[in-house]
Specification:
Helix content is 73%, strand content 0%. By secondary structure, it is mainly α. Keywords: Membrane, Transmembrane, Transmembrane helix.
C-alpha cells in the first residue's frame, strides 16, 4: 500500500508541476490561453489526488478530511475552469491570475496544512 501511495503522490505532484509550468510559461505573454500542459496537469493532479485519498482511507493512518476537502474544492474549481476554457483561443488576464492563485493556494494547503496541525 505504501508503494501505491508514493506512486500516486509522485503523479499528483507531477500533475501540479505541469499545471503550474503551463501557467508560468505564459507569464510574459500578452495573450493567455489554456495550453495542453495546463489541461493535462489539472486532470492528472485531480485524478491522482482522488486515487491517493482512496489509498489513504484504506490505510491505518487517520486522514485529515478538512484538508482533503479543501484541496478537492480548489482542485475541482481549477479543473472546471481549465476544461471550460480549453478550446478558447485566449482567456482573460483575471482568469489567468485566478488559476495561478488557485494553483499556488492548493500547493500551499498541501505543504502548510500538515497532519500535525489537523
Amino acid at each position: 500500500m505504501e508503494i501505491a501511495r508514493l506512486v500516486l503522490l509522485f503523479v499528483h505532484i507531477l500533475g501540479f508541476a505541469a499545471l503550474l509550468g503551463g501557467l508560468l510559461v505564459q507569464a510574459r505573454d500578452g495573450e493567455k490561453s489554456v495550453n495542453a500542459a495546463m489541461r493535462d496537469g489539472a486532470g492528472t493532479a485531480f485524478l491522482a489526488g482522488l486515487l491517493l485519498v482512496g489509498v489513504l482511507e484504506a490505510g491505518d493512518e487517520p486522514v485529515n478530511h478538512a484538508k482533503i476537502g479543501m484541496k478537492f474544492a480548489i482542485g475541482l474549481v481549477i479543473l472546471v475552469l481549465v476544461m471550460a476554457n480549453t478550446r478558447k483561443p485566449r482567456i482573460p488576464q483575471g482568469l489567468y491570475a485566478g488559476l495561478l492563485a488557485l494553483t499556488v493556494a492548493n500547493v500551499a494547503v498541501a505543504v502548510f496544512w500538515s497532519p500535525a496541525h489537523a
